[in-house]
Amino acid sequence: IPIGDFILNPAYGRADPNKSNPPYVCGLTGKGYSVTEVASRVELAARAIKKILKVDDINKGGQGAGFSEWEKVVGVYSINCVDYLPLCYAVHRVNGITSPANAAYNADELAYQLRDSKARVLFTCAPLLEAALQAANADGVKIPKENVFLLPIPDALYTAEMRRKAEGFRTFDDLVEEGKKLKEVEPLSWGKGFSREKVAFVSYSSGTSGLPKGVLISHFNMITNVVQVIEYSKSFRDFSTPTRVLALLPQSHIYALVVINQTEPYAGNSAVILPKFELESFLTCIQKFKLSFLFLVPPLMIVMAKNKAILDKFDLSSVKYIMTGAAPLTEELSLEMTKLYPWMKVVQGYGMTESSTVVCFTSGIDIWHGSSGCILPGIKCRVVNAQGKDVGENEPGELLVSADNVVIGYLNNQKANDETFIVEHGRRWLRTGDETIIKKSSAGNQHLFVVDRLKELIKISGFQVAPAELEGHLLNHPKVADCAVIPVPNEKTGELPKAFVVLNPGFAATHETASEIIKWVADHKSKHKRLGGGVEFIDAIPKSPSGKILRRLLRDKERERRKK
Ligand code: 4UV
């Protein structure tokens, strides 16, 4: 069944049709639709979306339809809002595929994703409309203006100019209204339009190397992960009474998309949605909605640790768990948070887009600070050394994951598929590119520790930045002959990108040139991709005989230097 049915239909989960616990509640206005209302909005909007996508028969296209029917991809480029998931479900209802894009992207970055996924329709929101229209109009993107729609957001987030520019654009609410006048959508039929391979989301991740790639996540992959998380959590969380959880992290990112905005509503809880982080509104929201579970990333934990005096002014006694993921949480910070806020349990999750999110997370009854917790049911893991040989407990190596939540693969990228998804011992394994160690706790559970990242990826406040993307852009600068980008540690964001640059002959390695290169990135890339780690000029970029950049060498050198 489609993921939306699985999440919202009380026949499968604990979503309660009554009004007391809407699946999505706006953290600014307190508004939210009941489960029944959301389901009805999904059905009605689906009728209008079927017309927009020009789908004559939703069951045409056969099994594994995701690979062959790219004309049905809908881009979603919006800040967090209550209709984000309902929109995705409405698209899925007519056998379409949604491609969530980071709301921090600029027009060029969005255009790359829309072009690559061959999106034909785009949903955005008023504050992002200008960039959305630019991207829709970019070379190779085929989204006419009439196929750009708006997701409703709270009135407080509009400026007068935004309102003026948004005039004439149809909204998700308009589609729901229009749906009332349209014919019902026929049911999706198993084995015809719908199958185990049917893709629900095309999310973007750079994986272990290269540029961001479309990750094909099936309904089945995602449902599997929701079930794994819930079954695992039952040992330490009480799901009998609905509760409210913080949904501040970007809905476009796999962590929020699956763990916060789908698993929690499936368990009958409300995801209380905030569109952006501001300390006061964050704390007000926790107090007002008596949130029990805060889903965060390590930089937000640091904000909580550094602002105890402000936090103490609010009643945060409802918080039972604070969870982080997407980047390492150090043992020190985990312990510090426990000391500062002893009534909150600090837990950590580890996973990736390519595993429909969660591989492991901390069980509330066996907390080992610094560990990413235990492996979820239904997931097999191996740790292998550089020669691909399995290693035992307490030994570091790359983590391989095999399970039904490991995604179908990358869109149109056989090379990346062959490198990332390997078949060994009769199973299909995902190479995570993360160096991990499995250790046994005193309670006898195997805990996973992420010790390093072997792959190229840079993580800034949990957001992915692909070195290859920044390198490609830097090479377009007239003064740059060659370059390599690596992560350097940063207290606030975890990491920041730093560029090593070889200049073209005749250009001086001066402070001004470095500033010019930093500006070149700042002007053309979204904020989190800026070269906050600076620029260093070198004579040659270290490369392997085949021409591959040896980023690892630069990273190790940088680490050595920072130790001194
Ligand atoms: O593809 P992605 O952007 O995916 C994520 C997923 C995050 C989460 C969040 C909560 C969970 O419970 C969960 O299971 C997963 O960020 O980036 C994947 C890469 O991010 C790093 C690691 O390098 C992954 O391959 N990463 C993710 N979680 C952790 C982490 C962690 N707990 N510790 C260290 N690195």
Strand content: 15-25%
Q: Radius of gyration in whole Å, from Cα?
A: 23 Å
Give the mean pLDDT: 95
Summarize the biggest pleated sheet: 9 strands, mixed
Count of individual helical segments? 17
Helix/strand/pairing category: alpha/beta
Low-confidence stretches: 62-66
**How many β-strand runs?**
26
Associated small molecules = ligand 4UV
Distance between the termini: 56 Å
How much helix, percentage-wise, in residues? 25-40%
Shape: globular
Report strand order across the widest sheet. Answer: 2-1-10-9-11-12-13-14-15
Explain how this protein is built.
The protein has 564 residues and is of the alpha/beta class. 30% of the residues lie in helices and 24% in strands. It has a 9-stranded mixed beta sheet, with helices on both faces. β22 (458-460) and β23 form a beta hairpin. The longest helix is centred in the first third of the chain and has 18 residues, at 35-52. The protein binds ligand 4UV. Residues 205, 254-255, 259, 325-328, 348-353, 357-359, 361, 372, 432, 434, 450, 453, 457, 459, 462, 464 line the site of ligand 4UV.
